[in-house]
Amino acid sequence: MPDGKLTLITGRSLKQGTGLNKGKDSSEYREAVTTVEMNGGDMTRLGLCDGDLVKIKTSHGEATVQCRRAELPEGMAFIAYGPLSSCLIGAETHASGMPDSKGLEVEMERIS
Amino acid sequence: MLRIINGEVYDPLNGVNGEVRDVCAADGKIVSEAPDGKVIDAQGMVVMPGGIEFHAHVAGGKVNAGRKMRPEDHREMAIPRTPLTRSGVGHTVPSTFATGYHFAQLGYTTVMEAAGPPLGARHVHEELNDIPILDKGFFVLMGNNYFVLKFIAEGDFARLKDYVAWLLEATGGYAIKIVNPAGVDTWKWGRNVNSLDDPADTFPVTPRQIVVNLARVQQELGLPHTIHVHCNNLGVPGNAQITLQTMQAVGDLPIHVTHAQFNGYGGTGWGDFHSGAPELAAYVNEHKNVTVDMGQVVFGPVTTMTADGPWQYRLYQLSGHKWVNCDVEMETSAGIVPYRFSKRNAVNAVQWAVGLELALLIEDPWRVFLTTDHPNGGPFHAYPDIIKLLLDRDHRAEVLEGVHRGAQKRSSLKDLHREYSLFEIAIITRAGPARALGLRQKGHLGPGADADIAIYSKAADPKEMFARPRYVIKAGEIVAQDGRIVQDKPGRTFYVAPGYDRQIESAIRDDFEKYYTVSFENYPVQFDHYLPHRVAVSCVRE
Amino acid sequence: MQIDHVVCAFCGCVCDDLTVTLEDGRVTGVKQACALGRAWLLGHSAEADQPPALIDGQPASLEEAVEVAAQILSQARYPLIYGLSSTYCEAQRQAVALADLLGATIDCCTSVCHGPSGIAMQVVGEPTCTLGEVKNRADLLIYWGSNPAESHPLHFARYAVTPKGLFIPRGRKDRTVVLVDVRPTASARAADIFLQIKPGRDFECLWALRALIRGLDLEESAVADTGLTLAQLQDLAGRMKSCRFGVLFVGQGLTQSRGKQMNTAAAFMLVRDLYAHTKFAVIPMRGHGNVTGIDNVLSWQTGYPFGVNFSRGYPRFNPGEFTAVDVLGRGEADAALIVASDPVATLPRVAARRLAQIPTVALDTHGSETTKVARVVITTAPAGISAEGTIYRMDNVPLRLRKFLPSPYPSDEEVLGRIVERVTQLRARN
Question: How far apart are CA B486 and CA B490, in angstroms?
Fold first, then answer.
């Protein structure tokens, strides 16, 4: 398995929610939706420190975000709903109306 | 102004039985003369007051969950948009616009929603307001309400009375509805009651106490409609006994036993299941304080929905179909299960016979009303079929031949030769419901009545006649003609305001704030928003 | 000035006991609200801080914007109306009327939040209850793929975990709280038991629980892929069977993961099975403001809760065909009206990009990613602050949103009403 392969979960976060109300151009919202959270072990393995920029790639698109250590299981990454998470998700809904928004296979790469 | 001439008029409340006479309307009311204006020549036609749907589930959370869960039902019946009307869907759980149009197309101009939880009253009104053309009202579920049980348990009748009055005003409701009293309360823990003397759980009060106390409250508040009771043990073999006991329990107090068909069974199980209609009819015939409605079964698909949570669970177990349950805090529950009544099923055949037996065995047509408990026994648009079964005994015998033998062996239907007259049909679909609801301006064609009129061609086949009125007039204006909607306008909402001692608010506030999840202040509906076209029906205290 | 019993329109909790202080046309104080509700209420004022409308990025009057919007929508061959979660029912009714008039497709945020729960309900039904039943009776709470601590911050305190209830005299002490999720979310702190499952294994876990509750013997290997041990699942099944009143709250962890409606259907069936042993309910944790309201309005007006198409003159429903992501992702919609929602920020990129390619009309209280790409933007008054109407809580309890702050902007209901009126005129002319 290549090093940077992780399972991405997108979801709501409190900061994303409160930031939403301060306006989508507010720094709080921007920060909330442009940060990916990862397990410490994965970060070390990929040579990442808090605040480093990483590129996340899926078969649907890619996004450049900051990373941050968080309490997550190994192999998992989390990003709040927002314009960047949307770039990673495809429009196929398998006749449900719902895109595959959780459990995405992603490739994570450090931007030096 | 409008003048309908040469029609054969059936107006039972005014004793008019098929006489040819003019009916005039001005400013939305029936008047004795209308010299100018449009003239409808009703030569060869029958003129009746607009139909009154006495008991149907057409609006509110439970109905909407039924719509939402049944896309397969709607695909049976699409109703396209026209330049005048909104689009919609049927079939057993039609959308709101379709409900209004479809009732109007059948000559109905008033509909009562049979069961709304107080906490969902806004929802009921929002939907009623989206049912076009018809006038309407709704019955408020109270038979398992926390405060009703509490005040009965405490023997505090004065507070019970004030609470009921307060609740009717807080919800913009019309009447006291009781569903499986005490049983729904125990369902909150997954149980049920099965006798009139089994206690509820939250407070140790029995179905008997609940029904009798609320019947007294209805009388003392002078509410226009009696208590409206869905008895215990609905749907279960042998339940005619508890229905009889419920009627006996209230003594001389007025009571309406709703969809009596579903509570009119004999036997001890599905094996010896048979009709209990003769016993019920005999009691009703002897007791003028009792009214019933049929709850007639119509073969085909239905969507069963009641506040009777434990019954709906049982029907889910029996049928294996999909099942919705929703328990509502402090007040009630609801269940929904799609079902299909089959001619080839012995139990279903008996159920079909029981409704007809009730209509034929109860001698006084003023005390039995045509309903299907829509959409439980069948969709309301089957009314013309049922009317034909009542009018024509040969047709009835023919239909009976085509259903499971059980209907002949386990009911008295084959021996009943009575045929309804058009006058009697006008009673069970209009005049009787209006009188039982206490709606004095409805159900008749005397001066001062609302000018709601249905005009039918005298076709050879009564089903065709009643399925497609030539004209339907609501508040003096033609709304449907030959099965087409020609005018789309909002109807009005009836409510009651019996008045209460304001002390009741402090008496309930403490428990309300502890056990509800909405603020006391946010509970009552805002009349200006949810009953924009409202009519208060007066209460006459004894 | 102080206003009590304010109803909060931000999330599906619809808390109705907030106190708001007003000074000089601004909300200056909010009590009893969570961080989300507070930010929402403090984020609006009575000032005209934005132009009433924009057409191609240039300030315009409301009248001009309504005219262009009506032209765009009536000339379109396959218009889409979408959003509607953060507005009130009276406005939603106008939006459905417009869709009916246009022969449009109308979809709401349900399709990307609990649409799969709606589909599951259509397949198997749904045994549920209002939140007061949870407060008054529930001694076992299971949160599955739901993170209320961040999505519905007051849920635990107001409705479920800590409050005392009629049959729960000691509150928190009388309840057991279980969290099932793929990661230890902020909600894990509120739970007695946290069960971490593997991503995409929700269905397998739920099905294993169904088997255990039915008394079937399972081998450890049957649950090997779930992330849980057989003993953990047996323990949970035992708790579910032996509680007095259990509630399973399902979140987007189920609806957005592999399996989607199959996951929620499995959850609903699991709860249904539990009626053989005890009383149980399932409650989808509906998210945004009045998303439950648009579900209801669509259902009573059209028979279907989301993804409704009127192109044949009557309502049709087909998730995957008439849902927004699909209609946009396949490039079918040729014009769009977005109300009280920001799909450009939240829908998959392909779908969002389509909104920038076609003429889009957006009604919102604030600028958003969608207003940035919209051809016509109309500023409207925020629901529950400067516009009043009906809102449905996640458990379908309807409440009345009030208007306590004047707004220079019209309500969604008024703007949509004017578009309906103008489109009706344009139709009559053709």
Answer: 13
